[in-house]
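Task 17 of the worksheet. Students: predict the tertiary structure of the chain below and write it out as structure tokens. Keep your answer in the requested format; marks are given for formatting as well as content.
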Amino acid sequence: MRILHISGAKIWGGNEQQMEYIVNYISENSQFEQGLLCYSNTPLAEKAKKWDIEVFDIEHFSVFSPKYWKALYTISQKFNAKIAHIHTSDTVTGFMLTDIFYNLKIKAIYSKKGLSRKMTLLSRIKYAYKGFDKIIFVSEVVKNHFQNILPTKIHQKFVVIPDGFKINDSLEIGYNLRKKYNIESSTKIIAHIGNHSKSKNIPLLIEVAKSLSEQSEFNFVILQFGKKTELSTRFEDMVKAKKIENQIKFVGFTKNLQSLYNQFDAFVITSSKEGGPSCLFEAFYHKVPVVSTKVGVVEEASKNNTSTLVCQSNDAKCLTDKLTQILTDKKLSTQLIDKAYNTVNEEYTAEVLGKKHLNVYNDL
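Model answer:
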């Protein structure tokens, strides 16, 4: 039996990391053979060539282009795919159109990671397309959101599989953050991870930095790790305008981030839209207390605020207050990280993620 993974990702992010976990688990624990259809000259295409998977990288055709449909049809036939797993929203559209014109005759599933704030007519049509046999949601929150949008008759196709975290106990020792960025030993290090996209809500992070600088009784610095984009200049200008250059630093993309977690005093997530986020589980495992907006699996993983302190989206005051709590209340911080550590090991590992996907594939 052969599975063809399909992705339109042009960057490497959390969703692509989750795909790698799935592919590796299936390779090591089943008889399925796997292929990947993706765009050429992308981080995903390059990384996937090191996996136990056949990579079909194609030109950057629009999913509305007959050239894309032909490429998908040809590759699925050549690979003799029996199952298609679609990982990105654009390729849900591409698969649907290809199936309409070529009648692919493949069992198909797609993964939905985040909430769709605006559901166009096309979105309603593609997410409810009859050619999909299963729909995998990253959380109960996302599933419930789509239950209110998609027809009742397809609700039996819904499956919830949270993102997973790859436990890595053989990490190299990371560089010294305090030495590299000239941070005093008494200064608290608050970490934020996310590429500079709208969904990560960096402006909210900047508001939190400003608010903390005005009311906190301790020194702190927010280290923001993530790939810079065309939005970065705007974020940097906001920091300068608020005169908080010493309170928040944009570090940029950093390899082997997990090797740095043991230097963080707190972790903050400000996203307005998320799949996981996978960094939540990394913080859990490395015993860093977390404050987060209510996105992705955060609310479920928080266990009623016993493993994570949760705020509503865009609530800078709440995030500021909660960060102050975990940085000044050692007992609370310890309770949070102990519960979080147990939670990630029991429910959110890459192995659990892989097992659940294998069950879905076997049921098709």
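Marker's comment: The first helix runs from residue 14 to 29. The chain has a mean pLDDT of 93.
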